[in-house]
Amino acid sequence: MYISxxxxxLFKKIFIRTTKSxxxxxxxxxxxxxxIIISSAMVLAxxxxxxxxxxxxxxxxxxxxxxxxxxxxxxxxxxxxxxxLTDDQFIYNxxxxxxxxxxxxxxxxxxxxxxxRSNLDKGGAFKRYDxxxxxxxxxxxxxxxxxxxxxxxxxxxxSDIETARGISNKSTEDDVIAAYGEPTEKISENFDYLTYEFxxxxxxxxVSPKDKKLLSIQYTNTPNYDRIKNAPKTT
Length: 235
Description:
This protein is α+β, with helices and mostly antiparallel strands.
Protein backbone atom coordinates (compact mmCIF):
# COMPACT_ATOMS: atom_id res chain seq x y z
CA MET A 1 0.00 0.00 0.00
CA TYR A 2 1.36 3.39 -1.01
CA ILE A 3 0.86 6.35 1.30
CA SER A 4 0.64 9.87 -0.05
CA UNK A 5 2.87 12.65 1.21
CA UNK A 6 -0.28 14.48 2.30
CA UNK A 7 -1.30 11.53 4.49
CA UNK A 8 2.16 11.29 6.07
CA UNK A 9 2.03 15.02 6.69
CA LEU A 10 -1.30 14.60 8.47
CA PHE A 11 0.15 11.85 10.62
CA LYS A 12 3.02 14.08 11.70
CA LYS A 13 0.51 16.65 12.92
CA ILE A 14 -1.84 14.33 14.78
CA PHE A 15 -1.17 15.73 18.24
CA ILE A 16 -2.67 19.21 18.45
CA ARG A 17 -3.53 21.79 21.07
CA THR A 18 -7.14 22.89 20.89
CA THR A 19 -9.46 25.23 22.73
CA LYS A 20 -12.97 24.36 23.85
CA SER A 21 -14.39 25.39 20.50
CA UNK A 22 -11.62 23.49 18.71
CA UNK A 23 -11.17 26.35 16.27
CA UNK A 24 -7.55 27.17 17.01
CA UNK A 25 -5.01 24.55 16.09
CA UNK A 26 -1.29 24.58 16.73
CA UNK A 27 1.55 22.31 15.77
CA UNK A 28 5.17 21.67 16.50
CA UNK A 29 7.73 19.74 14.61
CA UNK A 30 7.75 15.98 15.18
CA UNK A 31 11.20 14.70 16.06
CA UNK A 32 12.82 11.30 15.71
CA UNK A 33 15.21 10.71 18.58
CA UNK A 34 17.36 7.68 17.75
CA UNK A 35 14.76 4.92 17.47
CA ILE A 36 11.97 6.97 19.07
CA ILE A 37 9.66 9.83 18.17
CA ILE A 38 8.32 12.80 20.06
CA SER A 39 5.17 14.25 18.53
CA SER A 40 5.20 17.99 19.09
CA ALA A 41 2.17 19.94 20.13
CA MET A 42 0.63 16.78 21.53
CA VAL A 43 -1.52 18.27 24.29
CA LEU A 44 -5.16 19.23 24.09
CA ALA A 45 -5.71 22.26 26.33
CA UNK A 46 -6.59 21.36 29.92
CA UNK A 47 -9.75 23.43 30.05
CA UNK A 48 -13.31 23.61 28.85
CA UNK A 49 -14.28 20.47 26.97
CA UNK A 50 -11.40 18.42 28.25
CA UNK A 51 -7.75 17.54 28.49
CA UNK A 52 -5.29 16.64 25.96
CA UNK A 53 0.26 15.02 24.60
CA UNK A 54 11.13 9.68 30.97
CA UNK A 55 13.91 8.76 34.23
CA UNK A 56 16.69 6.65 33.56
CA UNK A 57 18.31 5.47 30.46
CA UNK A 58 17.06 1.90 30.28
CA UNK A 59 20.62 0.68 30.60
CA UNK A 60 21.03 2.42 33.94
CA UNK A 61 20.12 0.95 37.27
CA UNK A 62 16.74 1.95 38.55
CA UNK A 63 13.37 0.68 39.71
CA UNK A 64 12.26 -2.69 38.38
CA UNK A 65 10.11 -2.51 35.25
CA UNK A 66 7.61 -4.89 36.84
CA UNK A 67 5.73 -3.31 39.72
CA UNK A 68 2.68 -3.87 41.90
CA UNK A 69 0.09 -1.43 40.60
CA UNK A 70 -2.84 -0.06 42.55
CA UNK A 71 -5.26 1.80 40.28
CA UNK A 72 -7.65 3.11 42.93
CA UNK A 73 -8.34 6.14 40.73
CA UNK A 74 -9.58 4.09 37.79
CA UNK A 75 -12.13 5.78 35.54
CA UNK A 76 -14.53 2.92 36.34
CA UNK A 77 -16.43 2.41 39.57
CA UNK A 78 -15.17 -1.12 40.06
CA UNK A 79 -12.83 -0.05 42.85
CA UNK A 80 -9.23 -0.96 43.42
CA UNK A 81 -7.34 -2.63 40.60
CA UNK A 82 -4.05 -4.41 41.17
CA UNK A 83 -1.82 -6.01 38.57
CA UNK A 84 1.80 -6.79 37.80
CA LEU A 85 2.77 -4.17 35.24
CA THR A 86 5.78 -3.65 33.02
CA ASP A 87 6.81 -0.23 31.76
CA ASP A 88 4.95 -0.61 28.46
CA GLN A 89 1.66 -1.01 30.35
CA PHE A 90 -0.93 0.95 32.32
CA ILE A 91 -4.40 0.24 33.68
CA TYR A 92 -7.54 1.63 32.05
CA ASN A 93 -11.10 0.42 32.67
CA UNK A 94 -9.71 -2.41 34.77
CA UNK A 95 -7.74 -3.72 31.78
CA UNK A 96 -4.01 -3.77 31.17
CA UNK A 97 -3.16 -1.62 28.14
CA UNK A 98 0.22 -2.08 26.41
CA UNK A 99 1.79 -0.06 23.61
CA UNK A 100 3.18 -3.38 22.35
CA UNK A 101 -0.27 -4.88 21.76
CA UNK A 102 -1.69 -5.12 18.24
CA UNK A 103 -4.59 -2.89 17.21
CA UNK A 104 -7.37 -5.41 17.79
CA UNK A 105 -6.10 -6.24 21.28
CA UNK A 106 -5.76 -2.55 22.11
CA UNK A 107 -9.27 -1.76 20.89
CA UNK A 108 -10.72 -4.68 22.84
CA UNK A 109 -8.94 -3.73 26.07
CA UNK A 110 -9.68 -0.02 25.83
CA UNK A 111 -13.40 -0.65 25.34
CA UNK A 112 -15.91 1.71 23.76
CA UNK A 113 -14.48 4.85 22.20
CA UNK A 114 -16.31 8.13 21.74
CA UNK A 115 -17.47 8.11 18.12
CA UNK A 116 -18.13 11.84 17.96
CA ARG A 117 -14.63 12.73 19.17
CA SER A 118 -12.78 10.06 17.22
CA ASN A 119 -11.35 10.52 13.73
CA LEU A 120 -12.04 7.39 11.70
CA ASP A 121 -13.94 8.43 8.59
CA LYS A 122 -11.96 11.27 7.04
CA GLY A 123 -10.05 9.11 4.60
CA GLY A 124 -6.39 8.24 4.46
CA ALA A 125 -4.51 5.73 6.55
CA PHE A 126 -4.54 7.60 9.86
CA LYS A 127 -7.15 6.86 12.56
CA ARG A 128 -7.60 8.32 16.03
CA TYR A 129 -9.73 6.67 18.72
CA ASP A 130 -10.74 8.94 21.61
CA UNK A 131 -11.57 7.44 25.02
CA UNK A 132 -12.60 8.72 28.41
CA UNK A 133 -14.98 11.17 30.00
CA UNK A 134 -13.20 14.17 28.55
CA UNK A 135 -11.82 14.80 25.09
CA UNK A 136 -8.36 13.32 24.79
CA UNK A 137 -8.24 11.47 28.12
CA UNK A 138 -6.83 8.55 26.14
CA UNK A 139 -5.98 8.75 22.44
CA UNK A 140 -5.08 5.68 20.38
CA UNK A 141 -3.51 6.63 17.04
CA UNK A 142 -3.09 4.04 14.30
CA UNK A 143 -1.86 3.99 10.73
CA UNK A 144 -2.63 1.49 8.00
CA UNK A 145 0.33 -0.02 6.14
CA UNK A 146 -0.14 -2.76 3.51
CA UNK A 147 -3.64 -3.45 4.78
CA UNK A 148 -2.51 -3.75 8.42
CA UNK A 149 -3.64 -1.23 11.03
CA UNK A 150 -0.65 -0.49 13.24
CA UNK A 151 -0.66 1.10 16.68
CA UNK A 152 1.66 4.10 16.58
CA UNK A 153 0.90 6.04 19.76
CA UNK A 154 -1.14 5.98 22.92
CA UNK A 155 -1.49 9.41 24.50
CA UNK A 156 -2.67 9.81 28.09
CA UNK A 157 -3.80 13.19 29.40
CA UNK A 158 -6.05 11.98 32.20
CA SER A 159 -4.86 12.80 35.70
CA ASP A 160 -6.33 9.52 36.99
CA ILE A 161 -4.18 7.11 34.96
CA GLU A 162 -0.68 6.19 36.09
CA THR A 163 2.34 4.60 34.47
CA ALA A 164 3.74 1.36 35.88
CA ARG A 165 5.99 3.49 38.11
CA GLY A 166 3.17 5.60 39.53
CA ILE A 167 3.59 8.71 37.37
CA SER A 168 0.46 10.56 36.26
CA ASN A 169 -0.46 13.97 34.95
CA LYS A 170 -0.63 15.08 38.59
CA SER A 171 3.13 14.49 38.80
CA THR A 172 6.00 16.90 38.23
CA GLU A 173 9.25 16.70 36.28
CA ASP A 174 11.07 15.93 39.53
CA ASP A 175 8.67 13.03 40.17
CA VAL A 176 9.44 11.60 36.73
CA ILE A 177 13.19 11.77 37.27
CA ALA A 178 12.85 10.28 40.74
CA ALA A 179 10.91 7.34 39.26
CA TYR A 180 12.86 6.81 36.02
CA GLY A 181 16.21 8.55 36.47
CA GLU A 182 17.68 10.85 33.83
CA PRO A 183 15.89 10.73 30.46
CA THR A 184 17.39 9.25 27.34
CA GLU A 185 16.68 12.56 25.62
CA LYS A 186 15.31 15.94 26.68
CA ILE A 187 13.98 18.56 24.32
CA SER A 188 12.94 22.06 25.31
CA GLU A 189 10.75 23.94 22.88
CA ASN A 190 7.52 25.63 23.89
CA PHE A 191 7.24 22.71 26.29
CA ASP A 192 9.77 20.29 27.73
CA TYR A 193 9.83 16.65 26.66
CA LEU A 194 11.51 13.91 28.67
CA THR A 195 11.83 10.75 26.60
CA TYR A 196 12.91 7.28 27.68
CA GLU A 197 13.82 4.49 25.30
CA PHE A 198 12.91 0.90 26.02
CA UNK A 199 13.05 -2.30 23.98
CA UNK A 200 10.51 -1.75 21.21
CA UNK A 201 8.88 1.39 22.58
CA UNK A 202 9.45 4.74 24.23
CA UNK A 203 7.66 6.89 26.78
CA UNK A 204 7.62 10.68 26.49
CA UNK A 205 6.50 13.04 29.22
CA UNK A 206 5.39 16.53 28.23
CA VAL A 207 6.15 19.09 30.95
CA SER A 208 4.93 22.63 31.36
CA PRO A 209 8.00 24.91 31.55
CA LYS A 210 6.08 27.28 33.82
CA ASP A 211 5.29 25.03 36.79
CA LYS A 212 7.09 21.79 35.75
CA LYS A 213 3.87 19.77 35.96
CA LEU A 214 3.07 17.02 33.48
CA LEU A 215 0.64 17.71 30.66
CA SER A 216 0.65 14.35 28.90
CA ILE A 217 2.29 10.95 28.70
CA GLN A 218 2.88 9.41 25.28
CA TYR A 219 3.74 5.79 24.54
CA THR A 220 5.25 5.14 21.09
CA ASN A 221 5.56 1.74 19.41
CA THR A 222 9.01 2.11 17.83
CA PRO A 223 8.91 -0.70 15.19
CA ASN A 224 5.47 0.42 14.02
CA TYR A 225 6.57 4.04 13.84
CA ASP A 226 9.60 3.01 11.78
CA ARG A 227 7.35 1.14 9.34
CA ILE A 228 5.10 4.17 9.01
CA LYS A 229 8.02 6.54 8.52
CA ASN A 230 9.63 4.32 5.89
CA ALA A 231 6.45 3.50 3.96
CA PRO A 232 6.66 4.37 0.23
CA LYS A 233 5.29 7.78 -0.60
CA THR A 234 3.57 8.98 -3.72
CA THR A 235 3.31 12.54 -4.95
